[in-house]
């Protein structure tokens, strides 16, 4: 279930921005369908937002699968999907990641594995996790 969720999330994400070579901030390409996520500082934490992309087989522009019906018409472009992390500058834990493909929010951690490689781990439960590798856009 988490593997499918993260695959769907990857397919839905898109980022743009200026990358920093020394930490997790910057623009990252997700592993499927070329989605991009922009990660920036948010106070003492980091946040990640969608800056374009597709969901599934077609392009989706709104948060149509949000569990809150009142939020289903909000645009995906610019939507903050990562927040609440602590740590840094190269590893952040205790945050959450939102998946617009299923409207679910999952516990997450982020680790800079190399200058241009980010490991994003999402968990449904403590032992049910999936890690994706995102690449920094130059």
The number of helical runs is 1
Series of H and E elements? HEEEEEEEEE
Distance linking N and C termini? 32 Å
Mean pLDDT: 81
From the alpha carbons, calculate the radius of gyration and give it in angstroms. Answer: 14 Å
Strand order of the largest sheet: 1-2-3-4-6-7-8-9
Overall geometry:
globular
Total domain modules: 1
- CATH architecture identity: Beta Barrel
Number of strands: 9
- Helix/strand-derived category reads mainly beta
Largest β-sheet summary:
8 strands, antiparallel, barrel
* Strand percentage: 35-45%
Please name the CATH topology. Lipocalin
| CATH C-level | Mainly Beta
Features:
Lipocalin; 8-stranded antiparallel barrel; 138 residues; mainly beta
Commentary on this structure:
- This protein is mainly beta and 138 residues long.
- It has a single domain (2-136), classed as Lipocalin.
- Helix content is 8%, strand content 44%.
- It is built from one helix and nine strands; from the N terminus they run αβββββββββ.
- Strands 1-2-3-4-6-7-8-9 form an eight-stranded antiparallel β-barrel.
- A hairpin with a 6-residue loop joins β1 (26-29) and β2.
- The longest helix has 11 residues, at 2-12.
- The N and C termini lie far apart (32 Å).
